[in-house]
Specification:
It contains seven helices and eleven strands. The protein has a single domain, classed as HUPs (Rossmann fold, 3-Layer(aba) Sandwich), CATH 3.40.50.620. The chain is an alpha/beta fold. 29% of the residues lie in helices and 25% in strands. A nine-stranded mixed sheet has the order 9-8-7-10-6-1-4-5-11, with helices on both faces. The radius of gyration is 23 Å and the shape is globular. Helix 2 crosses helix 5 and helix 3 packs across helix 4.
Length: 256
């Protein structure tokens, strides 16, 4: 079974928020890490490989610093990597990211494509399903379990209200993986050493630009919310103050 895992490098959750000069995204001098939902997608791909054999390939789109995501995946057990390397990939919307990835793998024959459910920065939860549409493959979202069947797979999807859905799917397919589906592994020392010698193919922006279209979604402005505090003094007899306070808590603040 040949599995592609789409991964992303995102700002660290505890990194101080610093905006760039145009206030359209964060500055480059903050810390970055692997998108957590993608880490679960990688882990599930590695487990499927261990059960059924095959190959796990990881792909990311972003500047040179994004290669760290791929190196970590290779150290954990992925077989090879594809890096769509250019600063301009950061400014693409979900549809164009999907177009770029689809173009970069057009000569590959994958059985499955895994993505995390969503990214920790944008949170669109769209790249995986858009990629499925571009590839012309069936897809399923919020996957909690995957079982290989003859000629296909059986997946368990998480629904609302504590319900689950079981779906039989053919191959190839695209799946978006729910966080918490498994327990993440750590890279071993030997894995880190082996990662240095595993294949990593670089794809330039020009190689995929023909497949791209104008962004359908752009960020016009980001801003840090300003904390404000307003104090209101309720005066009068204690009974009247209690009634007014209860009314404000109920009707304005709606705490009960």
């Amino acid at each position: 079974m040949k599995i592609l895992v789409c991964m992303k490098q995102v700002p660290q959750k505890d990194a101080p928020l610093k905006l760039n000069e145009s206030a359209t995204w964060v500055r480059e001098d903050i810390g970055y890490e692997v998108n957590e939902p993608d880490a679960y997608a990688l882990e599930e791909a590695l487990r499927q490989k261990e059960k059924n054999g095959g190959e796990v390939v990881v792909v990311t789109a972003g500047p040179a610093r994004s290669q760290q995501v791929l190196r970590e995946a290779l150290a954990k057990g992925a077989d090879r990597a594809i890096h769509l390397e250019d600063d301009r990939f950061v400014t693409l919307d979900a549809f164009n990211v999907a177009r770029a990835i689809a173009q970069s793998i057009k000569d590959e024959l994958f059985d499955l494509v895994f993505t995390g459910l969503q990214s920790d920065d944008f949170g669109y939860a769209q790249t995986g399903v858009l990629l499925a549409e571009l590839l012309g493959w069936p897809h399923a979202t919020i996957i909690m379990q995957i079982e290989a069947k003859d000629g296909g797979i059986r997946v368990k999807r998480e629904l609302e209200g504590g319900y689950f859905q079981y779906v039989n799917m053919p191959l190839p397919s695209v799946l978006t993986i729910q966080s918490g589906i498994n327990k993440l592994r750590y890279a071993t020392l030997i894995g880190i050493k082996q990662a240095k010698n595993k294949p990593l193919r670089r794809v330039t922006f020009d190689e995929v630009s023909a497949a791209l279209k104008p962004n359908q979604l752009t960020i016009e402005r980001l801003y840090i919310p300003q904390k404000t505090k307003q104090t209101e003094v309720i005066q009068g007899p204690p009974q009247d103050v209690a009634k007014k306070l209860a009314a404000k808590l109920r009707d304005e603040l709606r705490v009960f």
